[in-house]
């Protein structure tokens, strides 16, 4: 596979985005033509029409639950063209953090192609600014468990389906991304053992590592938090050339014993470096002297991990990866110099047909029609609808984005949050973003005691009268009683939504409760999701745990070690 021609990829992207409106029409035409004989489109009376007007008039806006029974039939082995002309042979499991259980979504080669296109595009822009030399990538990537659906289709998370595809491997090679870890580690059956071995392989190739990445920032943070616990064991393996007995998967042991040779010098070097670090600040550049940047999705629900990421990364640039979902990709980060807080995603107009529901108008009760890709307005927020080559038509992804500018004629989007409300009891409305901002304010109180929140989530407790918000925190130490109380009141005060404030003032919503959970509780939650088939690299901590997510709620509630109520009102 020849090297990616960075200039050519950029040129193609520029040409396509200069003509985004026409490319969108052409993309819609191709999607509708390829799938004209599907049961779904036929039943809507499209009659082979491929123009936008007919499409919008006949095809309804849907959510996953509207399509679930079609997808289930595909998964059960129905061979008819149901949603796509070409048969779907693989099913993706979306992480399903919100509902507590993974959702099935169709996966096909076109999704692999658009994934590769988006990877190449952002790589080209990134490499122009931060060229990487020949070497390796320390990638914390994990294949989730794969299984067969009732109809015999392979099912796994979207990232796993992509990592397994041959196109992924050749695209990575053409971008000179050679992962430090062998496939046995990436696709190992045990997340913890794979993580340990990723770290070990990274250390063995420490001089060659050019960048560090994962799909979502959470797994990078999780990996280095784990490093803090296991570094001595890792050094011991390197010193003796014998893999720790905690690695029990035979295929991993066999491959790693070929890589591992006794190297006391390297072990001493790493050990000395670790001992010199103060509170692990700058761990990444210290361990990997030739790393150019850290790369992964750092926006949205990953933002709370940025402070820790900067702590580990020292002066290295952090680069936020592209925007997409198991259902389909949306935009590439073509401005790699922007810090993650300001990252924007330029929509690729040929990978799907995109529509945008304006949110300002729909708040006022007047529901406006969605607008097209080139009709969005800068400064406005929208809910995004996608129509893909994988059988989803006018599908509500559930994400809120803000248009912050245009790249040629395609919009640049900032991810705002998931659309669904997390916390609501009566007239109050708080989203994931509101929770994130409240936690951001309250952690400053802990920071005064040099403590940090490892992870957090929330819950609406209606067992009390009135109901109240509960925030769960895992903290990396023991805060004073005063700091905890103050944090709790800051959290309560930081929900500034008028419905919440007025309800709190008249006690229609009770005082906010902060519950501190035992160290390792969020690891148990991660383990729970991995058990359900989630992939470590695609994991997002659920930011609100509803009653339907009983197991996670039980994990949280049974690990509470301290709690207090706000005195803010
Ligand atoms: P999943 O398909 O389950 O892994 O999750 C897809 C969801 O992750 C999207 O709908 C977004 O809510 C979120 N997501 C994906 N990419 C980004 C990004 N670059 N920034 C923020 N959130 C993202």
From TrEMBL:
One annotated GO molecular function: acid-amino acid ligase activity
Source species of the chain: Trapa natans (Water chestnut)
Highest taxon of source: Eukaryota
Every GH3 middle domain range: 346-418
This protein's record includes keyword Ligase: yes
Annotated GO CC locations: cytoplasm
Family according to the record: Belongs to the IAA-amido conjugating enzyme family.
Start and end residues of each GH3 C-terminal domain: 433-546
Alphabetical list of InterPro entries matching this protein: GH3, GH3_C, GH3_M
Name the record gives this protein: Jasmonic acid-amido synthetase JAR1
Keywords: Ligase
């Amino acid at each position: 596979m020849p090297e990616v021609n960075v200039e050519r990829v950029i040129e193609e992207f520029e040409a396509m985005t200069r003509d985004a409106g026409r490319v969108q029409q052409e993309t819609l035409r191709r999607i509708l033509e390829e799938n004209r004989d599907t049961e779904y489109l036929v039943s809507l009376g499209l009659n082979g029409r491929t123009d936008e007007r007919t499409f919008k008039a006949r095809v309804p806006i849907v959510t996953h639950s509207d399509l679930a029974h079609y997808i289930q039939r595909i998964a059960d082995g129905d061979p008819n063209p149901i949603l796509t002309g070409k048969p779907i042979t693989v099913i993706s499991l979306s992480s399903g953090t919100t509902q507590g259980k993974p959702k099935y979504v169709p996966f096909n080669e076109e999704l692999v192609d658009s994934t590769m296109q988006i990877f190449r595009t952002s790589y080209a822009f990134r490499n122009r600014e931060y060229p990487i030399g020949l070497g390796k990538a320390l990638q914390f990537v994990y294949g989730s468990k794969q299984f067969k659906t009732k109809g015999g289709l392979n099912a796994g998370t979207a990232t796993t389906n992509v990592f397994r595809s041959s196109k992924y491997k050749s695209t990575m090679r053409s971008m000179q991304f050679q992962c430090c870890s062998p496939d046995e580690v990436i696709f190992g059956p045990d997340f913890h053992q794979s993580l340990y071995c990723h770290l070990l392989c990274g250390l063995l190739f420490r001089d060659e590592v050019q960048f560090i990445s994962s799909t979502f920032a959470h797994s990078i943070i999780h990996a280095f938090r784990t490093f803090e616990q296991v570094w001595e064991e890792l050094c011991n393996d390197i010193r003796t050339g014998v893999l720790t007995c905690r690695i029990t998967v035979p295929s991993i042991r066999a491959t790693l014993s070929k890589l591992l040779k006794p190297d006391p010098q390297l072990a001493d070097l790493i050990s000395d470096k670790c001992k010199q670090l103060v509170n692990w600040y700058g761990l990444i550049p210290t361990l990997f002297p030739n790393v150019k940047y850290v790369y992964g999705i750092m926006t949205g629900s990953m933002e709370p991990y940025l402070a820790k990421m900067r702590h580990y990364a020292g002066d290295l640039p952090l680069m936020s990866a592209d925007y997409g979902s198991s259902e389909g990709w949306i935009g590439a980060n073509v401005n790699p110099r922007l810090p993650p807080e300001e990252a924007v995603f330029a929509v690729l107009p040929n990978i799907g047909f995109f529509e945008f529901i304006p949110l300002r108008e729909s708040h006022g009760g007047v529901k406006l029609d969605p607008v097209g890709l080139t009709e969005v307005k800068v400064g406005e927020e929208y809910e995004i609808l996608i129509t893909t080559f994988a059988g989803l038509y006018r599908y509500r992804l559930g994400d809120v984005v803000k248009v912050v500018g245009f790249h040629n004629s395609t919009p640049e989007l900032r991810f705002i949050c998931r659309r669904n409300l997390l916390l609501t009891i009566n007239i109050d409305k708080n989203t994931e973003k509101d929770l994130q901002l409240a936690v951001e304010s309250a952690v400053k109180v802990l920071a005064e005691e040099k403590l940090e929140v490892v992870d957090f989530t929330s819950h609406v407790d209606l067992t009390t009268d009135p109901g109240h918000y509960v925030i769960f925190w895992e903290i990396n130490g023991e805060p004073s009683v005063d700091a905890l109380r103050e944090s709790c009141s800051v959290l309560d005060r930081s929900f500034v939504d008028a419905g919440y404030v007025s309800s709190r003032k008249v006690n229609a919503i009770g005082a906010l409760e902060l519950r501190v959970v035992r160290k390792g509780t969020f690891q148990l939650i991660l383990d729970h999701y991995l058990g359900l088939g989630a992939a470590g690299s695609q994991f997002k901590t659920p930011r609100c745990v509803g009653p339907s997510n009983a197991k996670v709620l039980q994990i949280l509630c049974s690990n509470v070690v301290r709690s207090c109520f706000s005195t803010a009102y």
